[in-house]
Amino acid sequence: MELNLFQVDAFAERVFEGNPAAVVPLQQWLADDLLLKIAEENNLSETAFIVPQGERFQLRWFTPAAEVDLCGHATLAAAHVVFEHLGYAQQQVSFESRSGELIVHRTEQGLMMDFPATLPESVAVPEAISQVLDVEPQAVLLGFDHIVVLADEHQVLDLAPDLSVLQRLDSRGVVFTAAGRDYDCVSRCFFPKLNVPEDPVTGSAHCQLAPYWAQRLNKNHILARQASRRGGTLQCVVVGDRVQIHGTAVDYLKGTIKL
Predict the structure, then answer these.
(1) Which residues contact 48 (CB under 8 A, 6 or more apart)?
(2) What SS3 class is residue 186?
(3) pLDDT under 70 in the chain at which residues?
(4) Rounded to a whole number, what is the distance in angstroms from the first to the last CA of the chain?
(5) Which residues make Cβ contacts (< 8 Å) with residue 218, sequence separation at least 6?
(6) Residue 245, Cα to own-chain centre: how many angstroms?
(7) Residue 215 and residue 209: Cα distance in Å, rounded?
(8) Are 97 and 137 part of one and the same domain?
(9) Secondary structure class of 116 (helix, strand, coil)
(10) Do residue 185 and residue 159 come from a single domain?
(11) Which of 27, 65, 244, 252 could in theory staple to 237 by disulfide, Cβ–Cβ 3.0 to 4.6 A?
(12) Pair 191, 106 in one domain
């Protein structure tokens, strides 16, 4: 069996920026353990698998360790492959996923994802978060990740958290964020439980960050910067219970998986 494999840099304007994701188009689903082995072999934070379903596609995401419920950058990468490599002529594509319907629009500026919003709620500071910080957080929130709000963007940039401690938390991961000087917010995202120490650019995290900062800043258009080593910029628009996330993607490689 041979499968096409695309590696795409998402939330990037050129290669070696943004967040790399693998995309594997399938005609039908393979066994879950085989999907996980492919993701582990790819050794990227996410591998997206897509299967056509009429005018739509089914979409699943795997880290090297597990299947996840939502991944923004791999959805952007999957849409890029659908539009650029699979001959899909429509201006929007709909994906069926474990997080419901996800729609990606093709625009003159790139791609726009329409995702469900999650407004994180305030929680007590977990001991694991206290242990990795030498400053007092402004707030600790919980959505599907723990969100740690710091007072200054430099506190976010200077972080070097002990990932073995963060791994004790029962959420997917930890997102540290602060108001930015040149952006509405900056963030860094750590997912040690998923074998992703620091994710370069995380679309799904902004389904939580954008509603939080929109409410705090009293504006629905949020310019966000994920301040990893590779880095990426996201334009987020909160519309009711949805978040529109704008970004671009570029090809890095096309290959063949031989099974």
Answers:
(1) 21, 22, 23, 24, 59, 60, 61, 71, 74, 75, 77, 78
(2) strand
(3) none
(4) 5
(5) none
(6) 10
(7) 10
(8) no
(9) strand
(10) yes
(11) 244
(12) no
The tokens of 178 are what? 């602060």
Residues known to be catalytic: 46
pLDDT digits (tens, 9 = 90+) for 66-103: 999 989 999 999 999 999 999 899 999 999 999 899 99
Name the residue among 251, 161, 243 with its Cα closest to residue 204.
243
Instruction: Assign 88 to helix, strand or coil.
Output: coil
How many domains is the chain built from?
2
Q: Tell me if 97 sits within 8 A of 113, measured CB to CB.
A: no
Q: How far apart are CA 214 and CA 243, in angstroms?
A: 11
Cβ 190 vs Cβ 119: under 8 Å:
no
pTM over 0.85: no
Give the type of residue at 216.
R
> How confident is the model at residue 61, as a pLDDT?
97
Nearest to 241 by CA among 70, 143, 115, 120: 115
Name the DSSP class of 195. Answer: T
Which CATH number is 148's domain given? Answer: 3.10.310.10
CA-only gyration radius of the chain, Å = 18
Report the alpha-carbon distance of residue 166 to residue 188 in Å, rounded. 14
Structural domain that includes position 42:
2-113+245-258
Q: Do 167 and 134 share a structural domain?
A: yes
Residue whose entry in the numeric block shows the structure tokens 């939580």: 208
